[in-house]
Amino acid sequence: MTRTPRLTRVANRGSLRRLAPHLGFLATLLVAWQLAASVLDPLVLPSVTSIVAAGFDLVASGELPVALGQSVLLLVLGLLIASAVGLGFGILIGRSRVAHWTLSPYFSALFVIPTVALVPLVLIWFGFGMTGRVIVVVLAGVVPIMLSVSSSLRDEPGELVEVARSFGVRGELALLRTVRLRAAVPVIMSGLRLAVGRAVVGMAVAETYLRLGGIGALIRDYGSLFQTAYVFAAILPLSLLGVGLSALVGLVERHFQGWRS
User: Fold this and answer.
1) Average pLDDT of 181-198?
2) What is the pTM of this model?
3) What is residue 2's predicted lDDT score, i.e. its pLDDT?
4) Distance CA 114, CA 209 (A)
5) CA 26, CA 210: separation in Å to the nearest integer?
6) Do 136 and 22 fall within a single domain?
7) Average pLDDT over residues 20-26
8) Burial status of residue 153 (CB atoms within 10 A of its CB: 0-12, 13-18, 19 or more)
9) pLDDT at 81 over 90
10) CA angle 98, 99, 103 (to 5 degrees)
């Protein structure tokens, strides 16, 4: 009983020591930014204080919460569909040699095409509505998931498969569910992290060019008015959203690490 508070204090001190370099670098960066902004044109580089003030203004007016809610909805829908499509095609390509040789070149070509280059086609095919924006996010995020699933399934854990068969696991679907996909979780999570970053970019591109609200539309509107501080204040939630989703993927990955050990 007497050791618990002491262990807690030790753990807290350890956490603070690990955070200290990050906090120190952040403080240095903010001070350097503020000093540079004091000698540059505010149109080029607004000060930290003006960005913070612009952020409070966007929150108080309700613009930022509404835009962020629209963007989160779009991003979640796009990532869910991209995950389902990427998982399905990844399993197909990873377990079928014919599908691998037939479909892989097309997905690889899609991976290297900039998302912004696909927006005019999506606009023609699906219009300016929510469907078109979701399609842009799906196209941005589906390929990393598909590639990670297919590559991990091609390098199957032979020893684990044999052990599972010795315990009576039979059939491709049973082995896929109990062994192959679980063993592939670290690679799949890496692909999902990459997909999150690309999906955030796709979301911003879709909202900027399809003009239906969200953070991207906020950035476009204030950029057209040359209000740089408001543009930075609108960009910041995008990076925080990407970092938060990547951390969530990391938590899911750690949940499955117990199975691997």
Assistant:
1) 81
2) 0.78
3) 46
4) 14
5) 35
6) no
7) 78
8) buried
9) yes
10) 125
